[in-house]
């Protein structure tokens, strides 16, 4: 095993093909690859408190974004945990043995208006669009102290084709940012002798040939980088031999399990699953197995079950038969369906626990399949047996915030508006009389219990 990057390859592949390995960092749970990282939103895995993550999931690590922590005054920097604990870990209450990966932008990010310059890149914080100085990013990565930092890359989000002129610009800029990062780390290591996060180099979403200028620089820096961040698998086809041994973190934003399998078949070791939280938000309980249980069903199987469906209202079976997760062993479909209809937050907590469990088993199946040498056939079976996309659900998810979706411009409508609001009443109907009677506001969150009693709120019906 390489001491340098704590990554060992257990079943190698020649170049652009699936492989298995082990990412084993000191004091962290070892991660067998291929595996996934949970995606955190503003430091938390959506719907899961840290104690639930530890008690009810097998999540081993999370990807977080600097843009989630940059705001006026950057409060996280005012927080000083004792005994040299990682600031990011303590601030987000991430369990001690979980891997913490920090990049500049969320996965997927909200495309930001305005191009990057050599000094800064456009980001989207919880308070709106702003610019992040490259120097600020580098100093934040050492003061936040995650396990792994994804270096700054001028990734052209929201572009499908990048012009030749632009390719020169972004490769040149990314090379300069990475060189500066490596140099600053070398100086810091000499001066403070403190440990630095591992550094993963971003590859631009182009073939390695198209970014040759940058990959040549990376080969020179290969002893100072500990992994690669991959934004498109087109970079994998001609990955230089000198960079093959490095672990590959996929930030390719796969939008369904099929896309995940394709990424893995191109040699991605660790991936993020942006669809996982959106599936949970949509009220879907995943139901996939890899390899498939029955290679020839009568019709393509859905990837998950729509838990909003009233057909589950009296169904006391588990979300998925035989699933060992907390949700499936303690509750049933009818309860889940009820929670969703009542917009109870617990619905999404239970779904998130179940859906992560299903993906844990999925990745375990993937690793075993690669080790067996049947991965290609198993992927072909999966693609034949399962529908390509998730089912449409009739229900509405929890509230969405601005930083969770692609902005379409100013004054856009609210996504998933609040299900409960203060009842305003119509002219002449009963509720207006209540207002007149005691000149007390219609029951709202600020109403006092005594005032409500006076106007007859919750009076026992005769
Ligand atoms: Zn389950």
Task: Give helix and strand order, one letter per element, not per position.
Answer: EEEEHEHEEEHEHEHEEHEHEEHHHHHH
Give the helix proportion (percent range). 25-40%
Number-wise, the strands total 15
Rg measurement, Å: 25 Å
**Which shape, going by the Cα principal axes?**
globular
Low-confidence stretches: 432-438
- Kindly identify the CATH topology of the domain at 3-272: TIM Barrel
Strand content: 5-15%
What would you say this structure looks like, in words?
The protein has 13 helices and 15 strands. The chain has 462 residues and is of the alpha/beta class. Among the domains are: 3-272, Alpha-Beta Barrel (TIM Barrel); 423-462, no CATH class. The chain has an eight-stranded parallel β-barrel. A three-stranded antiparallel β-sheet has the order 1-2-3. Strands 7-8 form a two-stranded antiparallel sheet. The structure holds zinc ion. The site of zinc ion has 8 residues, from helix 8 and helix 10. Residues 390-447 are annotated as: Disordered. It is found in: Cytoplasm. Residues 426-436 have a biased composition (Basic and acidic residues). It comes from Aureobasidium pullulans EXF-150.
């Amino acid at each position: 095993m390489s001491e340098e990057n704590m990554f060992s390859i257990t079943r190698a592949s020649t170049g652009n093909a699936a492989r298995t390995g082990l990412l084993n960092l000191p004091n962290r749970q070892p991660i067998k690859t291929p595996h996934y990282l949970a995606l955190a939103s503003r430091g938390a895995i959506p719907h899961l408190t840290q104690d639930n993550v530890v008690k009810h999931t097998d999540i081993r690590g999370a990807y977080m974004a600097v843009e989630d922590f940059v705001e006026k005054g950057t409060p996280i920097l005012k927080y000083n945990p004792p005994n040299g604990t990682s600031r990011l870990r303590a601030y987000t209450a991430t369990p001690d043995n979980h891997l913490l990966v920090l990049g500049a932008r969320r996965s997927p990010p909200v495309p930001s208006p305005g191009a990057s310059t050599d000094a800064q890149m456009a980001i989207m914080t919880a308070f709106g669009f702003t610019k992040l100085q490259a120097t600020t990013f580098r100093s934040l990565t050492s003061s936040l102290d995650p396990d792994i930092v994804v270096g700054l890359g001028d990734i052209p989000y929201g572009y499908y084709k990048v012009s030749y002129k632009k390719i020169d610009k972004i490769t040149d800029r990314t090379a300069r940012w990475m060189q500066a990062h490596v140099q600053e780390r070398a100086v810091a290591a000499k001066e403070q002798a403190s440990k630095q996060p591992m550094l993963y180099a971003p590859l631009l979403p182009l073939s390695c040939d198209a970014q040759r200028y940058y990959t040549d620089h990376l080969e020179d820096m290969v002893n100072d980088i500990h992994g690669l961040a991959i934004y498109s698998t087109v970079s994998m086809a001609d990955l230089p031999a000198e960079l093959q041994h490095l672990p590959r973190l996929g930030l390719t934003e796969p939008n369904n399990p099929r896309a995940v399998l394709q990424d893995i078949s191109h040699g991605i070791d660790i991936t993020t699953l942006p669809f996982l939280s959106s599936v949970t938000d949509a009220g879907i309980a995943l139901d996939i197995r890899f390899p498939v249980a029955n290679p020839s069903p009568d019709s393509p199987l859905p990837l998950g079950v729509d838990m909003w469906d009233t057909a589950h209202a009296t169904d006391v079976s588990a979300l998925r038969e035989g699933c060992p997760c907390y949700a499936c062993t303690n509750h049933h479909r009818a309860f889940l369906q009820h929670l969703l209809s009542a917009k109870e937050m617990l619905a999404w907590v239970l779904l998130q626990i179940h859906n992560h469990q299903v993906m844990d088993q999925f990745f375990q199946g993937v690793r075993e399949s690669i080790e067996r040498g049947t991965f290609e056939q198993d992927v072909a079976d999966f693609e034949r047996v399962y529908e390509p996309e998730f089912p449409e659900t009739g229900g509405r998810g929890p509230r969405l915030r601005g930083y969770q979706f692609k902005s379409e411009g100013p004054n856009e409508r609210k996504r998933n508006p609040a299900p409960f609001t203060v009842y305003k009443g119509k002219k002449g109907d009963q509720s207006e009389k209540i207002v007149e009677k005691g000149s007390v506001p219609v029951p709202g969150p600020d109403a006092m219990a005594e005032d409500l009693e006076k106007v007859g709120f919750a009076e026992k019906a005769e």
